[in-house]
Amino acid sequence: MSKQSKFYFNSLYLPQSGSVLLPLTLLFFGLLCFGYFESLAADFEIIPTRVNYRSAVNSGENIVIYGDYGTYLLSSDVGNTWEQRTIGIYDEICRIANFNDTLWGITYNGYIIISPDNGLNWELHKLNLDSSERLIELIVTENLLFIRGLQSIMKLNKSFQIEKVVKDSLFEVRSNEYYTEPDLPPVHMFYRFEMFYLNNKILLSSWRYSNNGFITLDNNLDNMEFIKLRGKVLPAPFFVDEYYFLNFVHTYRNEPVFQVGYYLYFPDSSLQNWTYFFKDTLFMNYNDSIHRNKWDSYGEPNSYFFNDDSLYISFLRDPALDSVEVSEFGINQYVPYPQDTFVQAGKAFEDVYLTGEYQSYPNKGLAFSFIPYQILSKRPIVLFDSILIFTGDKKLILISPDFCKTWKLVSYLWGKPLFILSDSIFYCSISGRDRSSGSPADGVTVITHSVDGGVTGLPTKYYNNSKKAKDFPRYKNLPLFYLDKTGKGFMKGFQGYSPEFLAVTYDFWNSYELIQNNSFLFDNELQFASNVIKLDDKFLFVKNDTSLLWADKGYLSYVYFCDTSFKEFRKTASDTLSAIFYILADNLKNFVGLATVNDENDFEETHFEIRRTTDTGKTFTTLHRIDEALTINQVYEHNRDSIFIVFKDPDKV
């Protein structure tokens, strides 16, 4: 039997090239009466959900937010609902621009993409590039496209013919990579790649020239001019050898305002004479060490933006530094009279969510990091004059639909798939050692979930209804997680210090509480648990220990009960030479386990078994055996008759 379905499958890494519709044959193990097995086949469309967003654009009434893997979100109701779509290839979408309600875009690996119908459908045109060239930035004019690559500037007509390519070491874009998760491909990051268009000239930021100014090119790419700013504008502090980099070109009352480093200037038409934007030349001058703290309190200058002939800047307030309960993120508006200042526009976004970040260098590990810190230096996209959109890594979307009167965290999804509650609701987690803590005992655990099949996600709140959690979950891993359809659940990981805390929820992990409980713990990071089953007034699960393999003792598994008030965990039985990853139970005595089993003569040799017990784990009989060393990566119980088992090393389903 074959069936075609759409499947949001987070646990599989999808390459950045190839077909969008990847057929995957899945074997359904039909556990009929725990004894009969039938294999069925089905094809699925795989849509990536662990996406990092670069920016947003509108076309007609539609809003498009774009990012990795050729995917984007589309909203036709000013951001109230979203649909995840694809351009047709797995590639990073680096830029999309709107020109007369036609969307033009570029991808990292050399495609020009065009949508004439407000982002619903896309045409793809592959450019013939040098093997090492990639596309980074795009300018669209009436008849031409200007594209910046890693090494060159290209001029194309709108029939996608390359009319001219110029290369110069001054055009080279400095690139780097960083990781949002340890097991995902890195994200590309570019420095001084900006390109602007003004009075039929292309303005280029260049890291090789940014200690002096910026570069201009004419429309034909024939004449290059160096705009020297040294001695004419303030040098940007903190940017060694890049004191005069071209940060952005704004528009204010139909006139250009150049942002050079941190500072705003009006240029004359020749770009030779520059006037400070603010009346007071000391205002927002970061070279003035006396007032620098005051300027910092107004906001982050990298976030300057103009809207409706007013200047704005983003700010944050930190509970550790300011008199606030939670981190706050907001927008300040420039007021020139009677003297230069900034005042808050509308309300601030109160960040009650538990989020984090991963860093691979110099100290590898996780850290709790609030959303304001992840978007503070970003310039918002302003659509329809009143909608502010901030985008970022981990599917981050923060929106104010009414220019700071209200705020909504639309999406944040981070971590590996952990638990599937229904066809559209699933949970992800990421855990590890805390790289920011002075104590090696500290860990970091972040839970996120999606209620729309991975289109958007949200993290757990640590502050809910004026109630603040005692602490953050500081587990170094998360082997035990449970949630039922009433919203009640618990989780526990390896903590490594006392007292032990159990995290519990009563609202589907929208929020959590930490309960001190020393009756159950994980002794090391090699111990893990099976799924949890609720039977009557007890929770049933299996704790496994694979650390003893190093002592040549094989695996151990322990059957545990826990009362539904989470007060007592009780070990009832143990089994040697097996690690049970998943259980299916009729009652507290009778259950089936999916297990990795040691060979009796050589503990390092393992195989896969489906085993059954009728005495709560004291003894087992084998129902099915596969004589391969298969590592179970994930199990999904679709219903009582169909189980998905994903193996790794080797990869099998």
Structure explained in plain terms:
This protein is mainly β and 653 residues long. It is built from two helices and 55 strands. The strands form 16 sheets. Strands 45, 46, 47, 48 and 49 form a five-stranded antiparallel sheet that branches. A four-stranded antiparallel sheet has the order 3-4-5-6, with no helix packed on it. It has a four-stranded antiparallel sheet with strand order 7-8-9-10, with no helix packed on it. The protein is elongated, with a radius of gyration of 28 Å.
Question: What portion of residues belong to β-strands?
Answer: over 45%
- From the N-terminal CA to the C-terminal CA, the straight-line distance is 17 Å
* Count of strand segments: 55
Low-confidence segments, given as residue ranges, are: 1-41
Average of per-residue pLDDT values? 89
- Main β-sheet, in a few words? 5 strands, antiparallel
* Shape category: elongated
Helix content: under 10%
Give Rg in angstroms.
28 Å
Number of helical runs? 2
Q: What structural class do helix, strand and pairing data support?
A: mainly beta
Which descriptors would you attach to this protein?
653 residues; five-stranded antiparallel beta sheet; 55 strands; disordered N terminus; four-stranded antiparallel beta sheet; 2% helix; 47% strand; mainly beta
